[in-house]
Amino acid sequence: MTLAMKIRTAWALGPLNIARVLVYRLSLKLGINRAVRRPPAAVTGPFFRAPDRLRLELAPRRGWYQWREAFGLRVDDGADMEAPPEWARSLVTGVAVPDTDRPWWRIADFDPRVGDIKGVWEASRYDWVLACAQQALAARDARERGRALDRLNAWLSDAAERNPPWRGPNWKCGQEASIRVMHLAAAALMLGQVSRPEPGLPALLAVHLKRIAPTLHYAMAQDNNHGTSEAAALFIGGSWLASLGLPGGERWARRGRYWLENRAERLIGADGSFSQYSVNYHRVMLDTLCLAECWRRQLAVAPFSSRFYERARAATGWLGNLVDPGNGDAPNLGANDGARLIPLTDSDYRDYRPTVQVASVLFAGARAYPDCPLADQALLWLALPVPEPVRSWQHSALYADGGLAVARSGPAMVVLRFPNFRFRPAQSDLLHLDLWRGGENLLRDGGTYSYNPGQEDGDWQDYFPGVASHNSVQFDGREQMPRLGRFLFGAWPSVRNLDGPRADNGDQTLAAGYRDWRGAGHYRRVWLEAGRLKVEDRVDGFRGEARLRWRLCPGDWQWRGDDLVNGTLRIRVGADVRVRERRLVQGWESRYYSQKTPLPVLEVVLEEAGVFTTEFEFPT
């Protein structure tokens, strides 16, 4: 990649954002940032008391109460659930961060001895605070309610003692501190202890806000959910402390409100697209806005700006359009780090309906799912109404701000990614296509797996974000965009010949193309009708080969002539020039962070410019 391309990429990231990062790093190196100087004193409990009013009609969540979880999956490690976690030990690898008395800024983000640091952070996101609060409210047995409250206070006290301010891995990230603030606030809201909290709780909040505020501009430089999360935490925690008459609260609340409104306007497009081009990060962002609005209503403070609500409503529609109403699943598009900010029910991690339900009620005044009890439970836990009006978000739509198009025909849905980058892409997924029939994902995105997977049996850091993990075309064995870093691609192309979605003689049609940094071109046209998908991929400008991949749903795929068949599913790929290779190989997908499973991949290779034609038949 040339120096000119690197400069263009840096300019696209934004000179102000780059300056913010440089100032942040320099302030840490010089020891002048307030998050590295004069840490506050450790906090002691108790933090919560028994609730005045029980909610026996609600179903408390079992995850993180009866068993531990990591990234939405149960962890069967034989741990005693009465004993608090080892806060510096990864729930994924079982390895602990060494020397936890070190200041947070001296601990590596990617220590090969520990593995992905997110496995360490998972227990300190305080999902268990919500689970214990729910049990203290809704367990039928009085002794169980008392035990839940005791565990809640004991674990918080242990976490405060073993993670003293500014020491250890759990203070490394301002967003992680922000998630803890939001979960503490949500627990207080459910337990009815916002206006009269136990003394330890405001003190614990203040310690977290003192960690978040000094590095807020670094979060803003990322142009992602770090900024929304940290702004929301400052607003929630600051307004809470201000309502109690405690110092610093009003200042933090004003700053949090300003940046939350700023992030909503900057990072969410008018069509609802979010800056991270990711379904799961979209959920994190939307959950954050929901918690901030719930909190604003709880304290009866001034509404957010009209633009905030416009963008929140549009973001709700974006996610609602991708979620299957029957099982809550959605395409695995973009980076997926296993985050779920409001785990209030025992619904699966990949069930996005509780988020869409809460956001629909808050920002559109209607339910998205009239027949989903778990989604209604999320409303009730947050003391929100369960309104009668129903709002369906599902339709064919173009989300140009985020480079996404959705076409629907009966129970079938096609989702097409195309390059329109105002913000940095995290995956090489240009012209990736997802196909769904009802809640079944027939043509699949690979997901993420891990941000620090190690090299024990393959270079997963390259595979999962790369073009090989997507339903697209790879030219000459390289990526669609050159990789500049762990989370950064360069030479972002622009979409060409964008068309649709639109109805065309009974079909839904989509089309888009691009030309990459080395002159290779790909133009994809899609026709979707009842029981049939047709895709034409025109490729040119490459030197050696163009490799088309279709990542199929797992099953017993068998060759029948030139067709691949799996029960009632049938796929055929041909071309208008000689096909050098047509084969079925094993690929991988990660539907849950830190987990990978095999799936079949159809690969078809051309050595000259031409047109691939794919026909996929499936029952209606």
Helix/strand-derived class?
alpha+beta
Q: Over all CA atoms, what is the radius of gyration?
A: 25 Å
Shape field: globular
- Counted beta strands: 21
Count of helical regions: 15
The pLDDT mean sits at 95
Portion of residues within helices: 25-40%
Structural domain count: 4
How much beta, percentage-wise?
Answer: 15-25%
Largest sheet: 8 strands, antiparallel
Strand order of the largest sheet: 11-12-13-14-21-18-17-16
Distance between the termini: 47 Å
Low-confidence stretches: none
Structure description:
The chain has 620 residues and is α+β, with helices and mostly antiparallel strands. It has four domains: 1-32; 38-267, no CATH class; 268-394, no CATH class; 402-617, Beta-galactosidase, Chain A, domain 5 (Distorted Sandwich). It has 15 helices and 21 strands. Strands 11-12-13-14-21-18-17-16 form an eight-stranded antiparallel β-sheet, with no helix packed on it. A five-stranded antiparallel β-sheet has the order 3-4-5-6-7, covered by helices on one side. Strands 8-15-20-19 form a four-stranded antiparallel β-sheet, with no helix packed on it. The two termini are 47 Å apart.
